[in-house]
Predict the 3D structure of the following.
Amino acid sequence: MKTARLSITARATTATLFVIAGLALFLLAIFVPVSKSAAPPSGTINAAGPTISWDGTAAATGSAGGEGTCVDGVNCDTFLLTVGGAKTDWAGKRVEVTISFTQTTNDYDLVIHKGDNSGPIVDTSGNGAGSAEVAHINPATDGVGQFSVHVIYFAVAPAPPDQYHGTAASVPLVPTPPAPAPPDNGLKIGYENHQVPGVLTPVNTSTGPTVEYMGRNAGEPSIGNNWDTGVTNFQSDLETLFVTFENGCPAAGPIAKWENRPAPTSQVIDSDPIGFTDRQTGRTFAAELTATSPTCKVSYTDDDGQTWIPSPGPLGSGIDHETIGGGPYVPPIPTGVAYPNAVYYCSQDLVTAFCLRSDDGGETWGPPVDTYTTECGGLHGHVKVAPDGTVYLPNNDCGGDGAVVVSEDSGVTWKIRKVGNATSKTISGDSDPAVAIDANNRAYFIIANGNSAPVVATSDDHGSSWQNIYDLGAAFGLKNIRYPAAVAGDKGRAAVAFYGTTTAGSANSSSFNGEWHLYVSHTFDGGLTWTTTDATPDAPIQRGCIWTGGGASICRNLLDFFDMTIDKQGRVEVGYVNGCAGGACSQVDAAATGNAYSATATIARQSSGRRLIAKFDPPSVPTVPGVPSLTEYRVGSVVHLAWSEGDTGNSPIKHYRILRGTSSGNEQLLTTVPGSQTKFDDTTATDTKQTYFYKVEAVNAVGSSCSANEVTAAYSGDTCSG
């Protein structure tokens, strides 16, 4: 830990010590003959090499305030690095700067500026004690010419300090891809998909109340679970949906029951909704950015939306990409707190990103604190808090690398820590990365690595070093990845989710014709091995492009992220968006073009297999199948049925039973089809005045699934007469 919050008395004492330390450093700077530069003070790196090196020369230590408390030649020094040649010479390459040292208790930090130390920050590295600092210059975006490599002696052994050794090397822009994830050979994890019903629901607008179809504009959903009540919260657009799941086969109706209880601060003129449920207290937050203004309005509820309390006045905010998270404080707990956990609100303002902290559960908020400026790309993922109070803000692009921006003092200061090691590195793509932390404070990071692979990594030291860096998509032959999410539970147990396709090429292109599925990967041994499930087999969640360039595009119907959580029994729940909802889209041939461009709220809920909370693990034996996800498409006298089975119960499906009726809940067996078949055309639905109702049951050696997937097929014409 680099810093710690201090009591009032400790602050006073510390302030006195800093005055004394500052005077000592001043006297050192005057009376001790020191060099203000590294040795040698400068050098040039070219695309063809060779690697250049230098050594630190500063005489003392104690720049705990980072660059703000630097005295060059005393507790910081500078190496002037010239990146030679033209930008074109560096095609496919970048400069890697490494600061290494001997003593494992020592702690340096690294900041690279364009020009001199007053220039814009290009990249930083703020790893913990004992970890080398690594940062990059990408000539394609940062240019060539002079850069200053500013090394801060954050906490280094007393004089003479353990001097660092610096190197600058020309390295490939795209590092060697990580190895495929070793497989977990246990039983597979099964999922059932629960789509929001298409019913009208009230929403608020700037001109008053109105109605819209529930969950039909659900891009960028947030999901959480109230462990006190078991109710799941799904936040998107102007709706705050509360979902109750039946854990057995319901006597009638669906397994999931959805209700909209919107927050009073959710209004149509606003944007970028975000939600968060503190599972320890049951409090759910719903926030909306104020359109065209850098402010945010937040409400919270302690009773699953039955009543809401808005925060007084808007929060100071950036203009985009807000996120809310919460968890324990780093000890000591500040005096006067009125809520068990710290709650953090983070957003970005084009370049700078910052976070605010609430100590009273969202009633009031502290001032914004910068997390990074020019050293990282503006967009970040969801903020998460570890059991030990460490706060993580994942970023897709810090100097071209995936990173976590970490606070070890409850949001007072922040450090950028790259995700990678000597053999495997992460590289930026176009999606937000995600992070989750298990009960033993192990962090699990996932990134859409170069847009082409879902790469995971783990860290036990708040991101200072990383292990178990693997590609989860290799086993499925995935070529394009979008929007990773992450959640964790007991020690060694975590899950990640992402959209993936086996089609290569630019997935932003309007001519891209891949089929996308939702994948969920679980680890039960801390990231050493993984098991991955296609949660939507035979039913794409999007066909064609998924646009990640911002702004308006028909392929941006899913917007920019989705989310996942766990319930009190350790079941994983993924709140995602179905962009290919309905049989007219999901049932067409893979070679066809087009998409529904829908944005339908859907939850993939774990229905079998080991949980993220070990004491709720079911027996390690096959089970009945999960409920198939069923779609219909009626044209003339034919009803086209298709289904997706995301949970075989770890036993092959023997057959499917297709049931039909002319009233809801009264379906009878129509026919049986083999377990390898996932489509059926009912050519006997010839009464054009009749609405037909269908269900499909999956049967394996253990038994039959619930029949809780009724669909309605009303006559709507044919392809000739309409």
The first strand starts at residue 37 and ends at 45. The longest helix spans residues 8-31. Confidence is low (pLDDT under 50) at residues 1-35.
